[in-house]
Amino acid sequence: MFKLLRYLKPFTWSVVAVLMLLFFQAIADLYLPTLMSDIVDIGIVKGDTQYILRVGALMLLFAAASALFLVAASFLSAKIATGLGRNLRSLVFSRVESYSLHEFNRIGTASLITRTTNDITQVQQVVVMMLRMMVSAPIMCIGGLIMAVSKDAELSLIFVLVLPLLAGVILLITRRGVPLFRAMQVKLDKLNLVLREGLTGIRVIRAFNRLEHEKKRFSEANSDLTDTAIKVNKLMATLMPFMMLVMNLSTIAIVWFGGLRVDHGDMQVGDMMAFLQYAMQIMFSLVMISMMFIMIPRAEASAVRINEVLDLVPEIKDAAGIEQTQDKRGLVEFRNVTFSYPGAEQPVLSNISFSAGPGEVTAIIGGTGVGKSTLINLIPRFYDVDSGSVLVDGVDVREMSQESLRAKIGFVPQKAVLFTGTIAENIRYGKENATDEEVKQAAAIAQASEFVADMQDGFGAVMAQGGANVSGGQKQRLAIARALVRKAEIYIFDDTFSALDFKTDAKLRAALKKETINATVLMVAQRVSTVMDADRIIVMEDGKIADMGSHKELLKTCQVYREIVSSQLAEEEIA
Ligand SMILES: Nc1ncnc2c1ncn2[C@@H]1O[C@H](COP(=O)(O)OP(=O)(O)OP(=O)(O)O)[C@@H](O)[C@H]1O
């Protein structure tokens, strides 16, 4: 928690201002009972109305100043806390954006969202509390004690009995409450997880008639959280009546013993009234301190989770000395590349070597899970190789800046991802300053013009969240248009064409051929018809290259390829 407080640095002056305002507010509050005792002991006793009015006005002034300080401090502390929340959110977001896919997998997308929202809000709330109480509570407690002793040292002996009792109970309740608060955060996480799965997987849940099962899962997580919340709230609820009881008993004791002392002429009535108020201030400050003890561990769990995100060093970083590629062409080379996912026993890719040059189409084919997507994900450096090297234009991708490397690439992922916005905006995602003409042309090559024209607002049509208002194949075509608008040197299509019907697939590839005539094209494909015309087909098996060559060559030399082909095409098509 305290580690996160370093992010308060931009607000140093505001923090200082809040602390000072609260300091003066506490002093003003501490002075009020003394003024009141003066009115009683001097003004009333002597019947001096002028004195009463004068000190009364002073009291009003102090009360107004105290209220003003408090309002200003509350305003500033709320501003600081929301500012801190905003900064932390953007910090976490930009840190997460720099993660490689490994780090994403390690923490999990759902948890990253909770950490950016819920956890930061928890910290934000505690910062407000801490700012408000950190200064007020100790000053009120210590200042109150000093003032009370100065009013009547003997009567202050009551505190020797009351304060340890109060502190003991607060400690006891806090010690029992804190683990429950920690458990609550974990249970809240669980509830978020179930909720997220229930919402994102709603189609599957309905299709498999698992609605009841999901409801049960949710209500279990919900009840679990509620039970703990009730338990902890019950515990906290006992604190208040107990404090009130102690306060009221103290009041009785003060009035009782104070009355006796007044009777004996050892104390004045005004002093006794002031003493009572100081006693209240001391006890309230103890309640405030106990609240802090409760809130801090509660936010601690959140702070740990935020720090975990901020401290995680991205595995993929730009090298110290960045090399520029000399001639901009788009040559991709794999040299003895071996790669494994963290925690996996076997490498998913072993000894991969090939090169794909400009003007060539290289297709990668193979069974599911053989490592095709993994292989092409190494080119934009989504992952780093274990051994060997991936080179673009003769430079190892690890030696290039990620930005310049990715600027060369038009990437179409296996699962098309669109963003909220219009169709044109989604295509322009590939090239911010693309003209309308370029957007249209890219859409035409991607065979998207027709369905875009059919939409009510054409290129201005708004995409629903995640592109839910277009079909899978349409989404895929927009993703292709987005890559094409870049006029990249290297195009990577990860199983992009299988969501398209055969006719559209053929038309798209024909149009693509003209567009990518000088580019390096790498495509993962499932269909033999898609790869048949490629200059080079890489056949993969068990993370290795089984064979490489043209369709005709592979038919002669590669058993695996022949099997794939015969499972898909009729004999006459093969020849
Ligand atoms: N993020 C990951 N973490 C761990 N293992 C992974 C990860 N992604 C893929 N794998 C594993 O690596 C292997 C290759 O996956 P990859 O996605 O590259 O296969 P693919 O050939 O593209 O398959 P498909 O044709 O089904 O898309 C699979 O066995 C998979 O279980």
From TrEMBL:
Domain spans labelled ABC transporter: 332-567
Major location (coarse): membrane
All residue ranges annotated as the ABC transmembrane type-1 domain in the record: 16-298
Record's bilayer topology term: Multi-pass membrane protein
Keywords noted in UniProt: ATP-binding, Cell membrane, Membrane, Nucleotide-binding, Transmembrane, Transmembrane helix, Transport
Transmembrane segments: 12-32, 52-76, 130-149, 155-174, 239-258, 278-296
Cellular component, GO, one term: plasma membrane
SMART domains according to UniProt: AAA
Subcellular location: Cell membrane
GO molecular function (one): ATP hydrolysis activity
PANTHER family: ATP-BINDING CASSETTE SUB-FAMILY B MEMBER 10, MITOCHONDRIAL, ATP-DEPENDENT PERMEASE MDL1, MITOCHONDRIAL
Protein name: ATP-binding cassette, subfamily B
Organism expressing this protein natively: Desulforamulus aeronauticus DSM 10349
